[in-house]
Amino acid sequence: MLSYEPLWKTLIDKHMKKSELVSNKIISTATLAKLGKNQPVNSSIYERICKFLDCDIKDIVQYTK
Fold it and tell me: Rounded to whole angstroms, what are the CA distances from 13 to 3, 10, 46, 55?
C-alpha cells in the first residue's frame, strides 16, 4: 500500500500547505484528493512534486505492506 505521509511531513517541514501544490499548478484538485486517500497516481506526478519541493521520492511516498 502506498502512503503519502512523507509528503505531508515534507510540506510541514517546508512551511507549505497542500493547496500550494494546486495553486502552483503542480497537481490538480482531483490528484490532491487521491493523495489524501492514499490512492495511486501517475508516476509523472511524483516527478513534478519532487522537482517543486526539491526533494527525493522517499520524501513524498512510501510503500508499506
Answer: 18, 5, 18, 12
For residue 24, the domain's CATH number is: 1.10.260.40
Summarised one tens digit per residue, pLDDT across range 13-64 is: 999 999 999 999 999 999 999 999 999 999 999 999 999 999 999 999 999 8
Q: Which residue has the cell 509523472?
A: 44
The total domain count for the chain is 1
The answer to whether the CB of 1 falls within 8 A of the CB of 61 is: no
